[in-house]
Design goal:
Elements: E1 2-5, E2 21-24, H1 32-48, E3 52-58, H2 61-65, H3 77-87, E4 91-96, H4 99-102, H5 106-115, E5 122-124, H6 139-145, E6 153-159, H7 164-167, E7 173-175, E8 186-193, E9 199-207, E10 219-224, E11 235-245, H8 253-272, H9 279-285
Amino acid sequence: MTVFHRNETRDPLPEHLRGGVVAIGNFDGVHRGHQSVLNRALEEAVKRAVPALVLTFEPHPRTVFRPDTPVFRLTPAPLKARILEGMGFGAVIEYPFDRSFSELSASDFIHSILREWLHASHVVTGFDFHFGKGREGGPAFLMAAGLLGYRYTVEAEVIDGKKLGRTLGYPTANMRLPPEAELKSGIYAVRFRRADGSLHDGVASFGRRPTVDSDGEALLETFVFDFSADLYGEICAVSFFGRLRDELKFDGLEPLMVQMRKDESEARALLAGVQPLSGIDRRLNFA
């Protein structure tokens, strides 16, 4: 098992480890939740015939920011490396975490570490993984960079709403996302998967509806194209293919409806030309 420590001299990654599928996270304990993420990386590496790597960080970030507060570790770094080796990974890359590294922007992390140093062909993370200064980066950020390997997807129950969209001709399937999803507010072109497995194109808004309900809770509201069935109570999934614009406050319902028609047209055009990013993406969003 190779445990590679990047040091201050910026030693290049050994040639035989470049271009692999990289699972990123601290993975303390390598528990079953971690294993589901790690197994996705192993499966993708086999399909691509490339190395399977784990990128982790030492010391633990909380140790850097709160050095006087001990951090309980289920698996010290050497033991964690042995467990990951047992799962089938070819190398663990322990990246030094310090205050300087914590100031790196999400974009710089992607370009300088994932692309230029690791030459990663595919990246796998858990939904709650964040990176970059101020935790600005996450799965959705990787999606925009084309490195997640599949479209960022959320899953939740469709709940009852105020039905304003229905009166405007745009009925929506409303979902309450967990806080840790940390989706940026805005308008997105999406694919919507019902509990029965059927796929539908749509346009979704995430935010607090500043034109009509600025004090409301943040909801994901999806207008599913050419669809009229009752979805209440179903557990459905929404995959994000592109961010169209910021959430805006309009001066009344008429300009809002004009913009909604533009959003629908733009989302339909975007979705008409999309291609799967990987086998995982094909199964999630095309099959």
